[in-house]
Automatic annotation (TrEMBL):
CDD domains: FBPase (cd00354)
Ranges where the Fructose-1-6-bisphosphatase class 1 C-terminal domain occurs: 197-329
Localization (cell): Cytoplasm
Residue positions binding substrate: D115, G116, S117, S118, N207
Protein name, UniProt field: Fructose-1,6-bisphosphatase class 1
Species whose genome carries this gene: Arenimonas maotaiensis
Any GO BP: fructose 6-phosphate metabolic process
Cofactor: Mg(2+)
Highest taxon of the lineage: Bacteria
Pfam families (UniProt xref): FBPase, FBPase_C
HAMAP family: FBPase_class1
Assembly information from the UniProt record: Homotetramer.
Amino acid sequence: MKPTALSRHLIEAQHQGHINADLRLLLEVVARACKSIATAVGKGALGGVLGDAGTGNVQGEAQKKLDVLSNEILLEANEWGGHLAGLASEEMDHAHAIPNNYPRGNYLLLFDPLDGSSNIDVNVSVGTIFSVLRCPDGVTEPRDEHFLQPGTEQVAAGYCVYGPSTMLVLSFGRGTHAFTLDREQGSFILTRADIRIPEETQEFAINMSNQRHWEAPMQAYIDELLAGKTGPRGKDFNMRWVASMVADVHRILTRGGVFMYPVDAKCRDKGGRLRLMYEANPMAFIVEQAGGACSTGRGRMLEVTPEALHQRVPVFLGSKNEVAQAERHHREHDARA
Ligand code: F6P
């Protein structure tokens, strides 16, 4: 059978009534922008794009040249197509309404243009994460508050991982599908349809250097995993941490596992480390559509009511039964407290 290109996959989804023409166009445009980012990332030192931009974003993080460039690529690609009412990005303080000189559509796009960008200079996988929401009825110039919808309202979400190969992983609520970039043809080809995350796992991903800063239930949970075969879980666990959420989540979609960034004493006042609107929610959507789970440790991620565009949350995602174990520890601890 001939391989299925992303364009065909989306057109067929439109014909089946799963997405409309505007959403199809939006997803095509995001995919095209990801191809441009893949080219820039792939050039590495030869493209003159490595290193710091010399600026900071709203979160007080130093921006890499590729953070800024990827943000510009996504903005430029999406502004004029007529499918969006507004955009919001990790790299911009506030939401950006589509300028008056362009046609406006009914969707809102949120993105982290280049997640894990501390990995760029060391040639380790990075990625783009995005989330699509509907613009509330009657709103023509969306502001931050119009983006503050729970993750359950997402109509599509995805990420593109720039690794040894470039892969776009996408869901519009009909399963999670992965497309590999054919660099010669310049098109994304469906290489894994309807991904399923194994419910059980023996692999976890966490930044262990934060251990002493975690809350008590987190300490207890990881102690259990580290105790291995002779501990209460009765099995050995392996650990992996790329420090690039897209790459860690991609591994989990490939072979299972649990990814965790709990709240700790260093980030408690901010609510966590990872951002709800353009990191946790889109990943939660993709993971749930693949049969996995995503939680704050104390509730389903997709049901969190957002309060700010750049809000941070604790994140537990991946194999269903392991996310449930992490939740159990939090529940039991909270009940005792
Ligand atoms: O966006 C934040 C991020 O870069 C994620 O991609 C990654 O999972 C995490 O931070 C790494 O955090 P740390 O540097 O604390 O390991």
